[in-house]
Every structure is written in structure tokens, then in C-alpha cells.
Design goal:
The structure is a single chain. Helix 1 (about 10-25) packs across helix 2 (about 40-50). The protein contains 8 helices and 10 strands. About 30% of the residues lie in helices and about 15% in strands. Strands 1-10-9-6-2-3-5 form a 7-stranded parallel beta sheet. It has a 3-stranded antiparallel beta sheet with strand order 4-8-7. The protein is globular. It has about 260 residues and is an alpha/beta fold.
């Protein structure tokens, strides 16, 4: 994996926007995530669109996951969240923003449909956050490394982490539809972004721990083009932190996307 350590969350967001913008300029299919960490990256990309002319025309978006039981117009559904926080501010066709159907009467069929749809496209870059327990998407610990889009029960810690987005913890859905780890790995480039000391243990397990279903994000170790982009606090538990910084500073010039 490519490990990029930046001094601040703001520097992380700027670097993430730089990477994603390279794919946007080619009209690529983008895999996006919701949550707190990507917001600063989205805001920087919006700024570049509005002030510097970065065009998203021709791009498509596939979301990682969706809560089960929420209407797409519910303010905390991920279908609504990505539009409110990002795509509504861009020149991207709303019909080209896709997410699993969380309000389907047959969630198993909805998961299979989404898997077929995303398999038919080539996701050029998949943006990922990481949970404090190492989950990506909603692939909780013990998820199969070869899993595909499916119905999952949320871990209690994930429910607690997400309660801040709802009025009460009881309102947080307990089930989701999520891309599987094998689905995620089909993207051409995986970009995992994390900031803050609360993510340090999960980042250490992802980068330096064993490949294990107990840390789903460790599946990035299997990918030929994975970038872990973190701030100093998120990097604080990495044993080889100085080596990663040295490698980053002395790497050859990037030759394109």
C-alpha cells in the first residue's frame, strides 16, 4: 500500500481532492462514501468545480452502502446525504448517482441487483472511510474477505458511532445493504482517508496488522493500487511511520491515472 501522512485533516482533504480530481477529468466512474471524514474532501472538490471549473460531466457515482428501511429522501439515507453534501453542487447528472435500494421490499434481491449493476461498470477509484473497529463500507469484523453486496447487521459500536447523525440512538437502523469486500476490491484504485487519534488503532491494524476478517480494511493489502491517506494523529500508532514518510518524500513522479 501507498501510505501518505499529512500534517492536518485539511491537508488530507486537499490531497484526496487532488487524487480524485485526476479521475474526474477523465469522466471516470467514482465510488463514494459518506460519513464525517469525506466531507472536507467533498467541500474542496465543490470549490474547485465552482471556482476553478473542474467539471464532473460524464462521471457516474456508485455509493458503498445504504441503511435498510430508510426512504431515499430521508435526510439520513446515504442516497440523500451524498446529494445534499456533494453531487447537487456539481454538474453531474442526478440519474447517474446510484446506491443500493434500502427501502426495497426484498433486500436480498436489491443487493443482488446492485452487485450486478456495479459489476457492469468499472469503478475507477473508490473513496473509503474506516470505522474505529476497522470496518469499510458496512463490512463489520468477521466479514468474509470475498464477500459481495449483501444485507448486514450493524455492530453495536457502529450504531453508537452513527448515533450522532440521528436524534436518538434508537433511530439508527440496525441493518444495511453494503458492497462486499470483494466488490470494493474490484475498483481500480482504493483511496482510504482517515483523520484523528480515534482511527489510529484501526489504521495500524489495516496497514501493519495481519490480513484478517477481524479488520475488514486489511483487505486493502490484497489490492494492487491502494492508498492510505491519513493525518499525523491517525498515523500515531504506525510502527514504520518514519519509513512511510521517507518513501513518500522520495517516490518517483506519478505518471498518470
Amino acid at each position: 500500500m501507498e501510505i501518505l501522512i499529512r500534517p492536518t485533516p485539511e491537508a488530507v482533504a486537499t490531497q484526496a481532492a487532488d487524487i480524485i480530481a485526476g479521475y474526474v477529468q477523465h469522466g471516470s466512474v467514482l465510488g463514494l462514501a459518506t460519513g464525517s471524514t469525506p466531507i472536507a474532501t467533498y467541500q474542496e472538490l465543490i470549490r474547485r468545480h465552482q471556482q476553478e471549473g473542474l467539471s464532473f460531466a460524464g462521471c457516474k457515482v456508485f455509493m458503498l452502502d445504504e441503511y435498510l428501511g430508510l426512504d431515499p429522501q430521508h435526510e439520513q439515507s446515504y442516497a440523500r446525504t451524498i446529494r445534499r453534501e456533494f453531487t447537487e453542487h456539481l454538474d453531474i447528472n442526478d440519474a447517474d448517482v446510484f446506491s443500493p435500494s434500502g427501502n426495497s421490499g426484498d433486500p436480498l434481491a436489491a443487493a443482488a441487483d446492485y452487485e450486478r449493476h456495479i459489476t457492469s461498470e468499472h469503478v475507477a477509484i473508490q473513496l473509503l472511510g474506516i470505522g474505529s473497529n476497522g470496518h469499510i463500507g458496512f463490512n463489520e469484523p468477521t466479514s468474509s474477505l470475498n464477500s459481495v453486496t449483501r444485507l448486514k447487521t450493524l455492530h453495536p459500536q457502529t450504531i453508537r458511532d452513527n448515533a450522532r447523525f440521528f436524534d436518538t440512538p434508537d433511530e439508527v437502523p440496525t441493518h444495511v445493504l453494503t458492497q462486499g469486500l470483494a466488490t470494493i476490491r474490484r475498483a481500480g484504485h482504493l483511496l482510504l482517508v482517515a483523520t484523528g487519534a480515534s482511527k489510529a488503532a484501526a489504521i495500524a491494524a489495516t496497514v501493519e496488522g495481519p490480513l484478517s476478517s477481524m479488520c475488514p480494511a486489511s483487505t486493502l493489502q490484497l489490492h494492487p493500487h491502494a492508498t492510505v491517506l491519513i493525518d499525523e494523529e491517525a498515523a500515531s500508532q504506525l510502527t514504520f511511520r518514519e519509513y512511510y514518510q521517507y518513501a513518500d518524500q522520495n517516490k518517483p513522479a506519478f505518471q498518470g491515472y
